[in-house]
Amino acid sequence: MGGKFSQFWRTTDQKESEDKLILPRQLDAEDEIANYASINDTATSCVGIAHQSSVNCPTCQGTGRIPGEQEKQLVALIPYGDQRLKPRRTKLYVCLAVTICLLTTSLSIFFLFPRSITVVPAGLNASSIGFNATTTSMYLNMTNVLNITNNNFYLVTVVQLDIEVLHQSLVVGKTTRKTLLNMSPLQSGQIYYMVASRILDNNTYNICTWTKVKVHNVLLHIQGTLTCMYLCHSEQLAFEDYQYVDCRGNATLLHPLYHRPP
Q1: Has residue 83 got a pLDDT over 60?
Q2: Do residues 156 and 228 make contact, with C-beta atoms less than 8 angstroms apart?
Q3: CB neighbour list of residue 84: distance below 8 Å, 6 or more residues apart
């Protein structure tokens, strides 16, 4: 009987000691919960105050982190007063760019603006005469010289030459020559062309064959058109000339190259 009572008291003492150990733990947990609640209340109030005086970052939306796949696509958020955002020498760069554009445009217009192509007939270079007494006609073969000056700053190509020879307002000769003459910028060149003419006029035949007359000249009116190509553009240049041709026999004249005046 005494052993049972002693066992009972031991069990009671063990329970009391266990309760003492459990109670401090519960008190500690309750104190932590209370402290956490007070911290949360303080944090909540601070967050509320912060929300009232600031906004979330537009990049990370207030999380403080950005997705890894957007690391190379997003830039840092820089304050408005940062020196890196202030333009440096912007006016200088703008003025320099405008000046370069104006200078380039002016030079392009100056060098590419079409200038005149001068065509000057240089006269007769050679001639040969033939007569037909049966028809009282005269055959005249002439080789003339044409001086051409390119006043442009680009290449000019002569592609065609059309010539008409008139005697007393009648067309007595005609020729078309497909030529290819490349003229360098600010350079001059010459074209030799031959026209075969037939004059059916009794008075002209008598003047050229009459031995008592010392002067045997025939007045011819030459009209021509020169076709030139430059900068993908075609241009026709008209010219005319009056020539006195000695019809007593063959003749050859020399014509030096026409130089562009300074």
Answers
A1: yes
A2: yes
A3: 78
